[in-house]
């Protein structure tokens, strides 16, 4: 499932932004890739690219071509992501996994609607409502979506993590 | 510990870094920041003045010629007008005695922005820095000293009154002197009188501009009752200072400012007025409240020293709030200090629709956690008493607050203030994310919200 990797990714990105790093890397897994792409779409990350053990040169990033994936190099591939800072503060300050390998949490549309409005869920699962500027990422059959997009498409799914300033 | 370890440390840290420039190794370069050692390395070599050629004889000679030129004949002519021949001789001997090169090498001519604005100016006395010169007076002849007799005392009063009236008399005499109707003889007499009065005024210089009461008081307190012609006494009771004490005259001003409209006759708000730019009227119209008062003790070997600690808040009811804390032996002093500090520390509080806060905020101060939540219009202030005062002072009308843990008064107020000031700014979030954030309430009501 790759869920432990999500929890690790959350902690790592949080730590990296606390250390004010410009770019950092995460293991290259399918779940990680989906989550960081969703984060970039939500505006938390400046870029996402695949690379080796050394970071891509930031100056030539726009024309950077990652090496083709082969069975020989796939184990050494990492996801390189750029962290954003605004007004001397990290844009992504808090990131927390919701589903864990021990307890995957799925939510249907009515629950997601409540959480997106800022209300806590009632009943089966316990997820706090979203605060100002927070995002919730849901893994659906259409890929990993931000909660507002999932509601727009009327889809529920596995709630991966929440991210916020 | 093995013997090989120190050698390995040496090689691995400095020498290895010097041999091959930092190529990120595969081992632990999963982020782009430089290693700590790489960051610590100095960017520039320190270069001595000698290596830059600043201490060569030519450079020294050039600097000396630029900065320490001898007097020109014209300057000497000017100096001669101000100094006696003896002084001039001494000046020139001094000039000849000092080699300008020594000045270059040993002298300290300051050029920094904090230099003292003079080299040496002995023409005037600087208050505080310089010692005030003592007035020289010979001690009275104790053999002849005695109390004034009744007749002498009356004469003394008359003389004092005359001295006090001297400025008026001088003005009158000056007017008379210009009178064309006076005969030559009369004019001479007036001239003589005028000279007398002027001499008297010269003697009593520095005492002008006193009103009648002050003069009477001065006569009682400061006039000598002995037949020493009012000479300065060596009494342990020092005479009071005159109005125009040299070196201090004009420096201190009366704190009462006519702009304050009589609101601050004691000068309490003057410092604050200068710091904050608020007028006294504005400051007195602020909501200022004391929220916490504590007795605190300092345990010394002589016993407990009790003081009062006060925490006050100040707000303008329109988005500004400050807290001030002060300690004093007297409660009144502590309260006043805390209130003034609260006004001084006022900070803008971000408000949503000028009635509540942006989202939920949590703040921790000590063991106290304060959670503030935004609430819809008309919800009111459902909070504890101290928070109620705080929110009312800064103009928040709908809010809920929770303190799940410790509810100590001091920490709760501080935590609440921290929470209010550390709110996230929605505009800042939007800019950081590069997204457009929309206030849904505003859209729903067509912009008809505050």
What secondary-structure arrangement, pairings included, does this model have?
The complex is a heterodimer of chains A (165) and B (450).
Chain A: H1 3-18, E1 23-27, H2 30-42, E2 45-51, E3 78-83, E4 85-86, E5 89-90, E6 94-97, E7 106-107, H3 109-116, E8 135-140, E9 143-146, H4 147-152, E10 157-164
Antiparallel strand pairs in A: 1-3, 2-3, 4-5, 6-10, 7-10, 8-9, 8-10
Chain B: H1 4-19, H2 36-40, H3 57-67, H4 73-82, H5 85-97, H6 100-106, H7 150-177, H8 184-203, H9 212-222, H10 270-276, H11 280-284, E1 287-300, E2 303-315, E3 320-328, H12 331-344, E4 347-348, E5 360-365, E6 368-374, E7 381-382, H13 385-394, E8 399-402, H14 409-421, H15 426-433, H16 440-444
Parallel strand pairs in B: 7-8
Antiparallel strand pairs in B: 1-2, 2-3, 3-4, 5-6, 6-8
Helix pairs in contact in B: 3-6, 7-8
Sum up the overall morphology of chain A in one term.
globular
The whole-angstrom Rg of chain A is 16 Å
Rg of chain B (C-alpha, Å): 39 Å
Relative strand content of chain A: 25-35%
Overall pLDDT of chain B: 82
- In the predicted model, the low-confidence regions of chain B spanning at least 5 consecutive residues are 1-25
User: Which parts of chain A are unreliable, with pLDDT below 50 for 5 consecutive residues or more?
Assistant: none
How many separate structural domains of chain A?
2
At the first level of CATH, what is the class of the largest domain in chain A? Alpha Beta
H and E string of chain B: HHHHHHHHHHHEEEHEEEEHEHHH
Main beta sheet of chain A: strand number and arrangement? 5 strands, antiparallel
For the biggest β-sheet of chain B, the strand order reads: 1-2-3-4
Main structural class of chain A = alpha+beta
Report the total helices of chain A. Answer: 4
- The first-to-last residue Cα distance of chain A is 28 Å
In total, the number of strands of chain A is 10
Oligomeric state, counting identical vs distinct chains:
heterodimer
Classification by helices and strands of chain B: alpha+beta
Shape of chain B: extended
Task: Please name the CATH topology of the domain at 360-443 in chain B.
Answer: Ribosomal Protein S5, domain 2
Q: Major β-sheet of chain B, in short?
A: 4 strands, antiparallel
């Amino acid at each position: 499932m790759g869920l432990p990797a999500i929890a690790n990714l959350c902690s790592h990105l949080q730590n990296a932004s606390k250390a004010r790093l410009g770019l950092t890397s995460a293991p290259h897994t399918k779940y990680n890739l989906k989550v960081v792409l969703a984060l970039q779409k939500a505006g938390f990350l400046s870029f996402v690219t695949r690379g080796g053990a050394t970071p891509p040169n930031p100056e030539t990033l726009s024309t950077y071509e990652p090496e083709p994936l082969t069975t020989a190099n796939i184990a050494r591939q990492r996801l390189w992501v750029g962290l954003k800072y605004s007004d001397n503060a990290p844009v992504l300050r808090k990131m927390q996994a919701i589903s864990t390998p021990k307890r995957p949490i799925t939510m249907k549309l009515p629950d997601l609607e409540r959480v997106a409005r800022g209300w806590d869920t009632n009943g089966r699962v316990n997820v706090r409502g979203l605060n100002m500027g927070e995002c919730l990422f849901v893994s659906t059959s259409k890929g990993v979506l931000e909660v507002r997009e999932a509601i727009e498409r009327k889809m529920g799914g596995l709630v991966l993590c929440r991210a916020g300033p | 510990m093995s013997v090989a370890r120190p050698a390995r440390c040496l090689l691995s840290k400095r020498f290895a870094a010097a041999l091959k420039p930092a190529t990120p190794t595969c081992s632990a370069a999963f982020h782009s920041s430089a290693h700590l050692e790489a960051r610590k390395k100095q960017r520039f070599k320190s270069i001595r003045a000698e290596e830059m050629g600043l201490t060569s004889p030519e450079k020294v000679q050039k600097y000396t010629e630029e900065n320490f030129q001898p007097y020109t004949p014209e300057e000497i002519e000017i100096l001669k007008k101000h100094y006696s021949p003896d002084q001039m001789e001494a000046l020139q001997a001094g000039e000849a005695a000092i080699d300008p090169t020594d000045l270059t090498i040993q002298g300290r001519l300051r050029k920094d922005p904090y230099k003292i604005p003079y080299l040496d100016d002995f023409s005037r006395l600087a208050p505080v820095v310089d010692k005030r010169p003592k007035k020289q007076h010979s001690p009275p002849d104790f053999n002849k000293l005695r109390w004034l007799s009744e007749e002498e005392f009356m004469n003394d009063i008359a003389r004092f009154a005359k001295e006090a009236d001297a400025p008026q008399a001088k003005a009158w005499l000056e007017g008379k002197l210009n009178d064309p109707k006076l005969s030559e003889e009369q004019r001479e007499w007036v001239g003589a009188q005028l000279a007398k009065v002027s001499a008297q005024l010269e003697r009593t210089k520095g005492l002008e501009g006193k009103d009648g009461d002050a003069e009477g008081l001065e006569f009682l307190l400061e006039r000598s009752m002995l037949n020493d012609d009012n000479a300065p006494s060596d009494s342990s009771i020092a005479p009071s200072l005159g109005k125009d004490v040299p070196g201090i005259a004009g420096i201190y001003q009366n704190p009462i400012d006519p702009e304050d409209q009589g609101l601050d006759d004691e000068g309490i708000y003057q410092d604050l007025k200068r710091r904050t730019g608020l007028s006294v009227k504005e400051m007195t119209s602020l909501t200022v409240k004391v929220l916490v008062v504590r007795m605190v003790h300092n345990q010394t070997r002589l016993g407990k020293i009790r003081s009062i600690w006060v925490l006050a808040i100040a707000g303008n009811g329109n988005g500004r709030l400050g807290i001030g804390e002060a300690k004093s032996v007297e409660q009144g002093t502590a309260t006043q200090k805390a209130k003034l500090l609260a006004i001084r520390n006022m900070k803008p509080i971000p408000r949503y629709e000028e009635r509540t806060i942006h989202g939920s905020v949590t703040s921790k101060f000590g063991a106290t956690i304060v959670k503030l939540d935004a609430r819809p219009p008309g919800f009111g202030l459902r909070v504890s008493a101290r928070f109620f005062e705080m929110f009312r002072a800064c103009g928040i009308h709908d809010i809920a607050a929770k303190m799940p843990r410790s509810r100590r008064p001091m920490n709760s107020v501080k935590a609440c203030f921290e929470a209010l000031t550390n709110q996230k700014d929605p505009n800042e979030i939007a800019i950081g994310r590069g997204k457009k954030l929309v206030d849904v309430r505003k859209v729903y009501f067509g912009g008809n919200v505050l």
